[in-house]
Amino acid sequence: MTAPPVRPEVLDAARVMLAQIGISATDLLQAVGGTRRPAPTFAEYVPVVAAAVPPGSRRMYGTYWSKAVTKWGDRRLDEITPTDIEALARETQANALQRRNSRGGRSASEHQIAALRCLYKRAVADGIITEAANPAAKVAKPTRLSGTRSALTDGRIAELVEAASTTGNDPELDALIVRLHIETACRRGGALGLRPMDLDVEQCLIMLREKGGTFRWQPVSPTLMQYLQRHALERRAAGDGQLLRYANTRPVSRRRYDYLWQRLGKILPWVATQQVSAHWLRHTTLTWVERVFGYGVALAYAGHAETPNDAGTTARYVKATLEEVATALAALTGEPHPLALPGDAES
């Protein structure tokens, strides 16, 4: 006897219900047929995810994935509970390296949870587990405390520039790094990713490639553009190679930043006490731009103008132009810029 056909509205209702509980038709078929493969262990799956994510994510989460492998290497992904993840996060927090600016290991705990969320998100995408069975999605991150970074005074900036440009084994390189961060408010990754081919000499612009795979043209002063060109020429940086280099032409890495700020901390005690870094220069420049030219220009200067969640939907209506950013830069440096709006730069 043939079963009566299922009405379309019943099928639609079933699809909605399955979607709400995170189960697909494929999941049902696999469960009935017994074709679902066992979930991999952490020792098996972590290397797979590490090879697939961008380098920045690998640097960020690699240590925390290793902790999970050490703790649960032989356990399958679908054997871990939210309670297991919370316990590991607390353990990571308790064992976090204590620095002068440490805040009780909260950041380590947050990163541990974020790393496991990334791992399980991949597992869901790969069909290893269902979204409903994702234990990491059920664990809340610790509340993030307000940052301790703040804008530096003109006097402090002058001290940093003086110390960077007159001490160390390569003061020319360090002075260029500090000026690049002050003028552009770029992140460390943006500076390290800069190439000679990213220089638009005629318009005094540089292409910054930063976190999240973002690209943006950022105005620089004519003086900084000349320094960047000369640095690339003298240190034999290929057009598509990294621009910032040591005197022996080797490309600079993140370790140069560690050396620079450790050295500055020995010369200027307040740098070591407050754990000042290049990101403080970003805070300083963007704070000044916001105070003088407004929130919209500061968003664009920071490269945040396209960020969907930044200040809600309001950010969509206050997007500044490249010319307005160039005008702010001209006021900051006291140098004219070819893209600055005529008569609008403030001194």
TrEMBL record:
Top-level lineage group: Bacteria
CDD domains assigned: DNA_BRE_C
Sequence ranges assigned to domain Tyr recombinase in this UniProt record: 147-330
Gene3D superfamilies: 1.10.150.130, Intergrase catalytic core (1.10.443.10)
GO molecular function, one term: DNA binding
InterPro entries in alphabetical order: DNA_brk_join_enz, Integrase-like_cat_sf, Integrase_catalytic, Integrase_recombinase_N, Tyrosine_recombinase_XerCD
Protein family membership: Belongs to the 'phage' integrase family.
Name this polypeptide is given: Integrase
Organism: Actinoplanes digitatis
Upper classification of the organism: Bacteria, Bacillati, Actinomycetota, Actinomycetes, Micromonosporales
